[in-house]
Design a protein that fits this description.
With 235 residues, the chain is of the alpha/beta class. The protein has helices spanning 16-24, 61-73, 139-152, 169-178, 199-211, 216-222; strands spanning 37-43, 46-47, 50-53, 57-60, 79-85, 110-115, 186-188. A hairpin with a 2-residue loop joins strand 2 (46-47) and strand 3 (50-53). It is globular.
């Protein structure tokens, strides 16, 4: 049977520079356009503003931001989502805001970074596999996979609360915040929303939600965003 996906780069050929070249269209393999949704998933050993490749090379937060900015300027995607599962994962997205552009050129390509842990925090492995005796995934990856399986009904009974109709970004973030990963989810969305989206208000809502003493499930189910204020009159 044919493979369900194509592998263009594997093994030692996967390097930080090759990743940047793929995103920016300077290397073959990623045939993306201005209407493409691109997902980049990064996992491995990391630290403050870096992710290790093969334990011999590093991808820095500045390099990731520069690659995303170049790809955005070349209209290599409509929406780019970067998921990172590593220690201090959120630090990899510290400079993504540099990629923000004006709206003069039409619809802005959007960039979103979701990290399994905040700067200064570790990311933790899932419980060990009973047959292998070692973990096969980190906790963040395990819960991320479980969420999408519930949403797409792959191999599990569909969860009535998680369907393809309501599996929005906000729902995903809420589910990952509730998940027992032992780390704090870090979401970087300043380069994702349009200029008129009320990102600071949404962030304040999350902080208030997390600060309450009610159980996590009750907090998420009970708290709802207030309606946005009317836009200011245009001159």
């Amino acid at each position: 049977a044919d493979a369900p996906f194509r592998v263009d780069v594997a093994g030692d050929a996967v390097t930080p520079r090759r990743l940047a070249a793929l995103l920016a269209g300077r290397a073959g393999g990623l045939d993306s356009t201005a209407s493409s949704d691109v997902l980049v998933y990064l996992t491995g050993h990391g630290g403050d503003e870096f992710l290790k490749f093969h334990d011999v090379d590093d991808l820095s937060a500045h390099e990731l931001a520069a690659a995303a900015t170049e790809a955005r300027a070349k209209r290599r995607f409509g929406r780019l989502v970067v998921l990172a599962d590593t220690c201090q994962a959120g630090s990899l997205f510290r400079h993504l805001e540099l990629g923000r552009q004006s709206r003069a050129g039409g619809a802005m390509p959007k960039i979103l970074g979701i990290g399994s842990s905040r700067p200064g925090e570790n990311a933790y492995a899932a419980p060990p596999d009973p047959d292998l005796g070692v973990s096969r995934a980190d906790r963040f990856t395990l819960h991320l996979d479980a969420y999408f399986r519930r949403a797409t009904d792959v191999g599990v009974r569909r969860d009535a609360r998680t369907t393809t109709q309501n599996a929005t970004l906000d729902a995903l973030v809420a589910a990952l915040r509730r998940a027992p990963t032992r780390s704090t989810l870090d979401v970087h969305d300043a380069a994702w929303h349009d200029d008129d989206d009320d990102v600071p208000r949404a962030r304040r809502v999350w902080e208030r939600l997390l600060a309450t003493s009610a159980p996590a499930d009750a907090r998420v189910a009970r708290y709802r965003l207030p309606p946005p204020p009317p836009p200011p009159p245009r001159p």
